[in-house]
Amino acid sequence: MQMRKILISLVLLFVCSYCVGQDHLYSQFFNSPIYLNPALNGQFEGKVRLSAIYRNQYTTVPGNLQYISAAVDYNVPKFGGGFGLLFTSSNEGMAYLKNNSLMGAYSYSVGSQDYVLSFGLQAGAVNRRIDESRLVFGDQIDPTTGITGLPTSADAFPFNNKYYFDAGAGINLVKGNFMVGVAGHHLNRPDYSFTATPVKVPIRYTGHVSYRLDLNSNDNLYESEKSYLIPSVVFYKQASAYNYTVGMQFKRRSVNAGLWYRGGRDGANAFVLSFIFDIFTGDNSSEKLRLGISHDISRGVNYGGSSGSTEGSVVYEIPGAGDGNLKFNGARRCYEFY
Fold first, then answer.
1. CATH number of the domain enclosing 184
2. CA 73 to CA 299: how far, in whole Å?
3. Are 204 and 184 within 8 A, CB to CB?
4. What are the pLDDT digits (tens) for 141-184?
5. Which domain, by its residues, includes 166?
6. What distance in Å separates the CA atoms of residue 81 and residue 118, rounded to the nearest whole number?
7. Got the DSSP string for 176-205?
8. Which of 39, 116, 283, 320 has most Cβ atoms within 10 angstroms of its Cβ?
């Protein structure tokens, strides 16, 4: 049993080393909008938005694959956008490879009652570190007894705590019932190597498309009383790796249920179920508390051995003075698609 755990640890370490240039992705991409695309910063009805999302990947597999993003953004109506901060943290593998970043975001929009085109920028600092004391090397393993506990003769990393500057940008268009956006992250290609040999972070390209189908278009109902089908496609590419999510949400008043299929370079990856609940307070108020949960039924990794991946999210919007749509009064905005 001990040797089995050692082998699993070594496999996870290899996987994390192979995937070290790939960013983590959220199944509830719509509940982490700034992480998806900085052009979505400040795009909401209220004055201030607080959001957080947590992902526990391959829940029962040793390796602590955990990710969290927390953001706060401020809606500036005359910009049609705003300012924001995004904190992201990841913990990967038995060696506790950790990445922490703090990014500032700015967005601005142009348009009319017919369309809104938003531009976003983000930039900040990233810290990447690894706990070498948790690594196990070949000369520390005895074929009979397992891990010996003796020190290794392997050379230590020249650096195990790395800081670097990172930047990204995005654009998003909403026209009628159609929304499309693209973004690029790590555009400055920072060096994130733990050794003396430079290794550049590959650019992560993101594209997303959504359509809102009104199921009560012929009924005399308020927008908040209608039901919608919202199909979406999200595509990511980073170096030679790519990933796509295709699915649909059914939105009825304050309840949103989604079914998604995610695939990638190695074929089918997972089916995803998501449920979102919006809680509004007061009449005609933009104050909103959103709770979300999703679960990935993995196919690329045996589900019985990994228990899939689970995400939880919370979003809270503080109402403003009722002028959230002042610049493009009557135009449809991106938040209406989720």
1. 2.40.160.40
2. 36
3. yes
4. 766 666 666 666 666 666 678 899 999 999 999 998 999 999 99
5. 39-336
6. 7
7. TTEEEEEEEESTT--B--SSSS--BPPPEE
8. 39
